[in-house]
């Protein structure tokens, strides 16, 4: 059974993985989505003090 990293590599090479990566790139380029992600990461890190 392949390890977790190997499974991620296989997914990234698959057509579905390529589509997902492209969607993530487009979302990261959108300023609104970027701000939304930054807020989420801040909350996960315990940002509101």
TrEMBL record:
Biased composition (Basic and acidic residues): 19-33
Region (Disordered): 1-49
Domain of life where this protein originates: Bacteria
Protein name: Uncharacterized protein
């Amino acid at each position: 059974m392949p390890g977790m990293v190997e499974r991620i590599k296989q997914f990234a090479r698959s057509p579905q993985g390529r589509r997902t990566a492209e969607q993530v790139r487009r979302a990261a380029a959108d300023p609104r989505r970027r701000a939304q992600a930054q807020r989420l990461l801040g909350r996960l890190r315990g940002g509101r003090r």
